[in-house]
Specification:
GO molecular function, one term: hydrolase activity
Organism: Marinobacterium mangrovicola
InterPro entries: HD_phosphohydro
Radius of gyration: 19 Å
CATH superfamily of the largest domain: Hypothetical protein af1432
Structural class: mainly alpha
Strand content: under 5%
CATH architecture of the largest domain: Orthogonal Bundle
Protein name: Putative metal-dependent HD superfamily phosphohydrolase
CATH class of the largest domain: Mainly Alpha
Helix content: 55-70%
Low-confidence stretches: none
Largest sheet: none
Order of helices and strands: HHHHHHHHHHH
Number of domains: 2
Distance between the termini: 40 Å
Keywords: Hydrolase
Number of strands: 0
């Protein structure tokens, strides 16, 4: 992870005397969490990839630093269980920033982290860009999208193959049913079709796999 980039971001946005730690300490904590051995997708690479997307579209929002702070924190509490990790990550951000930032802006960034549950449509430009960046992997080249899916599967080790397959199909179909998968104008114009093509292709593969897995269960092989 780019510690120098984080240091500059934290220093220009958070007053050291009001926060719970300086930039170096906070960055070290974040990196330790993202390097947990149980992470396969929600790791340092995911944050680095998100930052690359932000660099492409930072000029489309008024407060790109707010988006970047949300990116650094949004998956920090993913383990030991992913359930509710967005809220835990948002609360961790609030605690670490403390009084080192105006409460209104701090809470705005925390809400931005919360939108990465992808259950509620974002309300503003920064929130929309944050949500789209978190889902940008769906628009990556097909082979990379496949790799990302495999990495997500490794993180959901408590599910059997059929459960994971059915869950993915349900999620993808729900995403495709939205009028637009992405929310920001930049992503809708440049990446919407790539994401939809990938998801439709993945659903077809998963549906075939579901048939094979269901047959195995029916005959007592799994």
């Amino acid at each position: 992870m780019n510690a120098e980039r984080f240091k500059q971001l934290w220093t220009r946005n958070v007053t050291a005397s009001g926060s719970s730690g300086d930039a170096q300490w906070v960055c070290a904590y974040l990196e330790k969490q993202y390097r947990h051995p149980g992470r396969h997708y929600h790791d340092c690479s995911h944050i680095e990839e998100c930052l690359k997307w932000l660099d492409l579209y930072a000029d489309t929002v008024a407060d790109p630093d707010a988006v970047e702070l949300a990116i650094w924190f949004h998956d920090v509490c993913y383990l030991p269980t992913p359930v509710g990790h967005e809220e835990r990550s948002a609360q961790l951000f609030i605690r670490m920033v403390g009084n080192g930032m105006a409460a209104e802006r701090r809470d705005k960034i925390a809400r931005m982290i919360g939108y990465t549950t992808h259950t509620t449509p974002p309300q503003g430009a920064e929130e929309a860009l944050m949500v789209d960046i978190d889902m940008a992997s769906f628009a990556r080249p097909w082979h990379q999208y496949l790799i990302d899916t495999v990495h997500c599967r490794l993180e959901r080790h408590w599910l059997n193959d059929l459960e994971f397959c059915e869950g993915q199909i349900g999620f993808l179909e729900k995403m495709l049913a939205r009028p637009s998968f992405y929310y920001s104008e930049a992503f809708k114009q440049r990446h919407e079709q790539d994401a939809r093509t990938n998801m439709q292709r993945m659903i077809e593969l998963l549906q075939k796999r579901r048939v094979r897995l269901s047959h195995r269960v029916a005959v007592g092989q799994g």
